[in-house]
Request: fold
Amino acid sequence: MSLLVSLGIAVVCFVPYLVYQYRRYGQFSASRMVWMGVFLAYLTALVAYTLFPLPSRQWCTTSHSGLLVLDPTVYYRDVWQLHLAGQSWTSVLASWTVMQMALNVVLFLPLGVILRHLWKVGLGRITLIGFGVSLFIELTQLTGNWFTAPCAYRVADINDVITNTAGAFLGAALVLRMPRLAADADVMESVRQWAKPVTRGRRFTAMLFDVATIGLTWLSVEAVLAVAYVVFVNLPDGDRSAALAYGTITRHISEACCLAVVVIFSLIKDGASPGQRLVFLKPQPRLRPARLWLVLRALSVQGLSLVVLFWFSGASWIVILWILADVVWVLARPAGLSFTLTRCDLADARSPMPEGDVNAS
Reply:
C-alpha cells in the first residue's frame, strides 16, 4: 500500500518537483528524481507501519491498550533469559526478540542512506534526525495517534528509539563506503548559469509543462467563475436554463484565457512559452519582423490545437494527429514542428560556458 500511495504522491508532485529541479540546478536529474521517489515510498511506509491497522472501539474496550516501555535493557534481558532457558545461541538469534531489534535497525537504514545521498547531511545530524523521527513515532503510538484514535493501541518503547537511531547512523555510515548514485547537487548548481545542449529530453519537458500550464489555467478560471456564480449570481432555484447559459459563458471564458496565455507569452521578452522558460530555452526567428514570427510559432501548434479543440470539438482527432506529428518531429529534430514551420531556431537562453571554466570539469 505504501508503494501505491507513494506512486500517487509522486505523480502529483512530478511537475512541481521538475520545476524545482530546473530552477535550482538548471537541468533535469533522473537519478535525483528516482531517489526522491524512493524517499516518498519510504515516508509513506513509515506512516503505514506507525498507524495501521487502526483499532476499532470494540477492540479498545475488550483488549489491552498500548503500553509504555522506558527500560532500555528489555531486549537484552529477553535475549539473556532465552539463553538461560536452555535455547542455543542459534535459536536465540532467530527468536522474535532479536528479529524485532534487528528489523528496527533495518527500518531506519534507508533514512540515513537517503539523507546522505540526496542532501549530503552530516553523520551527526542524520543521527539526530533519526532520533527525532523515531521519538515522534513512539509519541504518536503512546498518544493513540495524538488522541485521534479510540485508544493507544501500540507499544511505545524506548528500545525502538535506540535501535531506530542506530539504524539511521549505520545507514549514513554505509554511504561513506558506497559509490555515489545520485547527481551531486553542488556540481549541478555550479554550472547552472551556463548554456547546455538542446536535447530532446529538455524539449519534451517544455512541452509537458506547457500542457500542465494550459490545464492549470483552465482549472483556475473555472474555479473562480464557479465561486463567482455561487457568491454573486442570484438565480431562482431550479432555473436550469440560466445555469446552463452561465456554464456556456464560463466555458468560453476559460477557453479564451487558455488561448490568451499562449499569445501573451509569445509577446513577452524572447517569446518563449512557459515550458521553454522553465528549461532555459528560447526561440530565435530567422525572419523579420521577429515578434510576428514568435506569435506565429506559438499559434502554429499550441494555438491551433486549442482553437480546434475548443471550437471544433467534432474534429478533435485532428488535434491528436497534430500533436503526435509534433512529438515525432521532436524525435527527428529537437526544435519541433512549430519551429520548423516558422523558421525559428531553438537555443539555450543562458550564456555559453567559458572555455577552461573550472566548474565545467
User: Anything to note?
Assistant: The chain has a mean pLDDT of 88. The longest strand covers residues 281-285. The chain has two domains: 2-56+66-190, 200-348.
